[in-house]
Amino acid sequence: MRKPQDSFRPSRRLLFAAGTAAAASTVAASAAPASAAEAAAGSPAAAMAAADGLTSLGNYGSGVLGAWDRQARAISNEAQIRRTRESDGVFMFGDSIGVQDGPPLARQLSKLGISIAVHNWAGRPVTPAVDALETWAQDYGLPHRILMSVGSNDIFTPPAVAAQVDRTMQIVGEERTVYWVNVQAARTAHGPDVKVADQRNSAWINLQLADAQRRYDNLRIVHWAEHLASSPNRLARYLRDGLHPSVTLGQNARNGLIIDAIKAG
């Protein structure tokens, strides 16, 4: 069976363009280090080589992931999980963006007659989110739609993402659909070198998602990064800190992309 054609299948060039747009705007007042700037427009291997020199900022230039296990979380109770599974709704696994944007997303889905159970945890990278997916699969079974709203916290170790996408697809099997929101990070609280690293690493993560989509018929990418980069001023208006959606403008935009993807199937 041929893989369904995605309504927006970006090229590798477009993904890198989306991944560097915010860096260009936020670093305009300061010249970025030449090696980081070159890596942002080059290959993942070049990005890793440049980032390896930024040892004080972690191996990849964005810093080091801090402890997240005591940060804010929003996890559905067992009754809601079972109701969602029985009604074939949506299971969502997210990070701090999910904690913030999950409640309005649930309200929008409810209007469409779709229930949702969430496992959102601020600061969490992809690997423990997939651990949670695996636990729910074993304990409750899975509905036919899985929403992965994670990856932003993997800018600190971007190579980890590809294996976890593969693991996700193995857990859900071929009969379910995974909707994965790609990432955009250029944290405004940090200096220009970190912003460039954030962008480079975001693009690297998004390339891994795009590559995985070519292998899995049932993986749908929600193109958040491209949406932000496609129009002037969206990055400033839709993100409040270079990462988290602004409330309510960016929040509505991102949730709208998710709703559209789910409705498209």
UniProtKB/TrEMBL annotation:
Annotated signal peptide: 1-36
Plastid in keyword set: no
InterPro entries registered for this protein in UniProt: SGNH_hydro_sf, TAT_signal
Swiss-Prot/TrEMBL keywords: Signal
Keyword Signal belongs to the record: yes
Name this polypeptide is given: SGNH hydrolase-type esterase domain-containing protein
Organism: Kribbella hippodromi
